[in-house]
Write a structure and sequence with these properties.
The complex is a heterodimer. By secondary structure, chain A is mainly alpha-helical. In chain A, about 40% of the residues lie in helices and about 0% in strands. The chains are: A mainly alpha, B mainly alpha.
Chain lengths: ~180, ~200
């Protein structure tokens, strides 16, 4: 992780791309997709809602109330603001949010996740209550941190992208 | 029982609903495999880029759940999009921004940021596909409600499908509407869940 190669950016370079378009010689960092859990965690982290301490069991119903059968299977989704790796996973039904973003097949070992780009993923980001809740939290977090809009933009960029905005980005954001 | 016809030649791989449902849709009774609709979508593609290529009409979650329309090892763009009766037939289809203008501005800013990013990474097809997916999603948000709206169907058509005007009980006409030429996802599944036998309808094959 301390090597020059690891710390490079992912920006293109026409001369290098002409020789080695697939980046076999590692002249830039390979862009890497976030996994389903990472996307969820990143949204929670940026919005400030991520809880680092999630402990205790999931709120399963007490055993004496179980009336489950093949015709009436146990199906539940237990939401919390901890990391996605602590979400309850069911074999019978993939977690709805994780399955949109190529979450692992819960029936079998998944050596490598497939990567897909689908309109349902975009719809999730556009319209899902979870996405809007995190966006609201993010806006409140940034709004409360500074009174000045330019400083807010700077803070938002540092939270979301880990870097400062360019002057053009500040200008556009303020519009 | 006065007369009984006993068939001794019947055989099956498995005698449970769960495995049978998985098997009839994916060809595998044990682990999920790409659904037949995913294969059709993968093989034939779709003409209308604003609508999903594989639609699942499933008012109730069937045995084996969403595994029966999963794309499994095929790209997830070929997985079934489940349509359910009610105000929001597809998950997250309804605009949640306060107004269309606000959403247009959100999408405009997003497209602008993404394009700025793409300029420095011209060879990133994944990034271009991501930009395109937001345009498709916006198209779905605009066109799907109309494709699923049965209120403009004639009484004769509704009667043909055994539907009452204003009722959301049946969904099959939606399938046919989205399948009309030039507006055609490649397959429609009709899965009746817990009580009724599985009925599979693959149009357009």
């Amino acid at each position: 992780m301390l090597s020059h190669v690891y710390q490079m950016g992912s920006a293109d370079n026409a001369a290098n791309a002409a020789v080695d378009a697939a980046n076999n010689y590692l002249w830039r960092f390979n862009r890497r997709r976030l996994d389903a859990e990472e996307i969820r965690d990143a949204m929670l982290a940026v919005s400030g809602a991520l809880e680092s301490n999630v402990d205790g069991p999931h709120p399963f119903p007490p055993e004496n109330l179980w009336r489950y059968s093949q015709h009436n299977p146990f199906v539940a989704t237990y939401e919390h603001n901890g990391r996605g790796v602590y979400l309850m996973q069911q074999r019978i039904r993939a977690h709805p949010q994780l399955s949109i973003f190529d979450g692992a097949d819960t029936n079998t070992a998944t050596g490598e996740r497939v990567l897909s780009t689908t309109p349902l993923q975009a719809l999730f980001m556009l319209n899902d209550p979870f996405a809007h809740k995190q966006a609201d939290n993010f806006a409140v977090r940034v709004g409360l941190a500074f009174a000045d809009d330019a400083k807010r933009v700077d803070y938002a960029y540092r939270l979301a992208f880990g870097r400062q905005p360019t002057p053009a980005e500040v200008r556009k954001s303020l519009e | 029982m006065d007369e009984v016809c006993l068939i001794r030649s019947m055989k099956c791989d498995h005698n449970e609903h769960f495995q049978a449902t998985l098997g009839v849709h994916t060809g595998s009774i044990t682990f999920k495999r790409p659904s037949i609709g995913s294969w059709v979508s993968y093989g034939l593609g779709t003409e209308n880029q604003n609508l999903p290529s594989f639609i699942v009409l499933a008012p109730y979650l069937p045995y084996a759940g969403g595994q029966v329309w999963s794309s499994d090892f095929l790209p997830a763009v070929h997985q079934g999009v489940r349509v359910i009766p009610g105000a929001e037939p597809i998950q997250d289809l309804t605009r949640r921004s306060p107004s269309d203008q606000i959403q247009q501005r959100e999408l405009g800013l997003l497209a602008d940021l993404n394009h700025q990013h793409l300029i420095k990474r011209e060879n990133e097809s994944a990034l271009a596909a991501r930009i395109k997916s937001f345009e498709t999603a916006h198209g779905m948000q605009r066109e799907m409600p109309e494709a699923l709206d049965l209120s403009k169907e004639s009484d004769a058509t509704l009667k043909l499908y055994g539907l009452e005007r204003g009722s959301t009980k049946g969904l099959c006409p939606c399938g046919n509407r989205t399948l009309t030429p030039g507006n055609s996802p490649t397959s429609v599944f009709s899965t009746h869940a817990q009580t009724a036998p599985i009925s599979v309808t693959v149009h357009d094959l």
